[in-house]
């Protein structure tokens, strides 16, 4: 997606504009962040103790902060922090679900089962869509699965693979007075 808008295009609502950032290219998303590098603590050898390889991104439009310290490479940590920021945006920003579900490229519904690989670049778009539908149904699993065109067990399995999305679903359920989903 493009980070720029023409003067005559309508300004989207704040949540819509934030959600669009999930699909931004790395340079566009990074341009909206303050990038802080620092020395990571813990194991990793002498190089880790002498270089500022850890990365913290402060995303100005949303106020979200994503960090990565695992690698001795600042470049790898920056890429990890950007992935985490996209996931945070998908999980924290709710939109009204579309009338008709349109899955992103690379997502397959086979036999009413949701199939999307963990390395699929659209994974965070899928997480956002699933959570939007969950929120619109007050956290009810069966109704959400029906609208998405998948089985409840397939949807639950997908969410279990994404622990932060699972936690958000259970937060939505708690807010609606429902018990948490069990794994």
Notes on the structure:
- The protein has 2 domains: 14-87, Double Stranded RNA Binding Domain (2-Layer Sandwich), CATH 3.30.160; 108-175, no CATH class.
- The protein is built from 8 helices and 5 strands.
- α5 crosses α6 (141-148).
- A hairpin with a 5-residue loop joins β2 (54-59) and β3.
- The strands form 2 sheets. A 3-stranded antiparallel beta sheet has the order 1-2-3, with helices on one face. It has a two-stranded antiparallel sheet with strand order 4-5.
- With 183 residues, it is α+β, with helices and mostly antiparallel strands.
- The two termini are 35 Å apart.
- Helices cover 44% and strands 12% of the residues.
The number of helical runs is: 8
Rounded mean pLDDT score: 87
Proportion of β residues? Answer: 5-15%
H and E string:
HHEHEEHEEHHHH
Instruction: Give the C-alpha Rg.
Output: 18 Å
What is the number of independent domains?
Answer: 2
Number of strands: 5
The neighbouring-strand order within the major sheet is: 1-2-3
What is the CATH C level class of the largest domain, in words? Alpha Beta
Shape: elongated
Terminal Cα span:
35 Å
Estimated structural class = alpha+beta
Q: Briefly note the CATH topology name of the largest domain.
A: Double Stranded RNA Binding Domain
Helix content range: 40-55%
CATH architecture of the largest domain: 2-Layer Sandwich
Please mark out the parts with pLDDT under 50 across 5 or more consecutive residues, or reply none.
1-12
Q: Largest sheet, if any?
A: 3 strands, antiparallel
């Amino acid at each position: 997606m493009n980070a720029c808008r023409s003067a005559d295009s309508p300004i989207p609502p704040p949540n819509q504009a934030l959600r669009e950032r999930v699909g931004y290219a790395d340079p566009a998303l990074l341009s909206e962040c303050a990038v802080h590098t620092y020395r990571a603590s813990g194991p990793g050898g002498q190089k880790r103790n002498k270089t500022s390889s850890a990365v913290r991104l402060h995303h100005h439009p949303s106020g979200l902060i994503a960090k990565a310290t695992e690698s001795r490479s600042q470049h790898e940590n920056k890429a990890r922090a950007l992935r985490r920021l996209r996931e945070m945006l998908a999980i924290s920003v709710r939109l009204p679900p579309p009338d008709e579900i349109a899955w992103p490229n690379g997502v397959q519904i086979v036999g009413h089962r949701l199939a999307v690989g963990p390395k699929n670049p659209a994974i965070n778009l899928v997480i956002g869509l699933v959570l939007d539908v969950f929120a619109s149904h007050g956290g009810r699993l069966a109704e959400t699965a029906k609208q998405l065109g998948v089985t409840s067990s397939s949807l639950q399995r997908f969410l279990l693979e994404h622990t932060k999305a699972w936690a958000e679903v259970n937060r939505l359920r708690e807010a609606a007075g429902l018990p948490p989903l069990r794994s």
